[in-house]
Design a protein that fits this description.
7 helices; globular; mainly alpha; 52% helix
């Protein structure tokens, strides 16, 4: 359990602004303070993560994880999280300036499944 916690903290220390953004947006989403478009982006990301073979609930003895790390995934964490970057799915998907955790692999075989959200004003 301590190892899992230390891994999560290590990842969070590398990206404190994204962690805070994810927490902030999660709270805003709960209280209906995000735009409909931002909520749709977060919901779509969460659906993508739910079907990802690297999501903690899907990993276990997943052959894809084993190909990358040469072992089965094991954790004492109970929260749904990315087995690659260790981020809680709820926080990671709400950090609109974050890329999918597969970015950590930096591997063409496993491209990211979603990217930083570009707000409408950025698209103009």
């Amino acid at each position: 359990m301590l190892t899992d916690l230390l891994k999560m903290v290590k990842q969070g220390v590398k990206n404190p602004a994204l962690v805070l953004e994810g927490i902030y947006n999660s709270v805003k989403m709960e209280f209906d303070f995000l735009s409909e478009e931002e909520v749709n982006v977060i919901v779509l990301r969460r659906l993508i993560c739910q079907s990802c073979p690297f999501m903690s609930e899907n990993t276990g003895t997943n052959p894809e994880y084993k190909k990358v790390y040469k072992k089965d995934y094991s954790t004492s964490r109970k929260d749904p999280h990315c087995s690659i970057c260790s981020c809680p799915i709820k926080t990671k998907t709400a950090a609109l300036n974050a890329n999918c955790g597969l970015e950590e692999l930096n591997n063409e075989k496993y491209p990211i499944k979603w990217a930083k959200y570009k707000h409408d004003e950025e698209n103009k």
